[in-house]
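Onboarding guide, step 5: your first structure request.
Type a short instruction followed by the sequence, for example:

Predict the 3D structure of this protein.
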Amino acid sequence: MQSSWQYSTIHNSPCKIIEEQNLWGNVVYRIWLPNQDTVVRVPQSALRPLGAEIQPENEANRIAYVAAAAKVAEVLEGGSHDLDGPVLLAPMESNVIPLPHQIRVLSRVISGDMVRYLLADGEDALIVRDRDWFDKYSLSITDIAEKLNKTLPKTRAYMFELDLWDDPEMYGEKRIKSQTYKRYTQKALDAFRFAVTQYSEEEMWEKHKGKVSGRIKGS
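The system replies with structure tokens like these:
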């Protein structure tokens, strides 16, 4: 029988040989996989000496990769705390002492399903805030018109009926350099769709066509 501990190339895992069997002239082994806590049967050809898969020239990089991945997981799961509070992700050989605004920005970014940016001060933080804003205010008035299957002027007529510009959950304006963006949220689109079921297009046009011609707001 081979050494009791081997490496299973099928499962990419160390394993312990429990029993050697001979089935129809073929040697097979019942092995225990500690990572899965299960017993399986594998052919002799699937087993290698435990150290055979280790390549010394690559092992240092593999260990660094595993350690870095574990550190990221620990931070995201709320671990890696010191006496003064949470420690943010830092180079392998050190920790950083986060400033309050850095904690707030990082908390916003990792509150979703996945981390989109690794943050620094200045421009990177601005990119994250801009990205968050456009994620929320994701629709232009043209987008809404297309989703309602209506012309832009008729959509604006409903827009004046709803008068939603003071509701930050529906409408927002953002200036980036010389460009001003006027955008709507998914909640605003839902409000538009409801209004379409309540008011006819002709009624809205007659009521608001003067305002639409002036294109006062939300153009």
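Each response can be followed by summary notes, for example: The longest strand covers residues 13-23.
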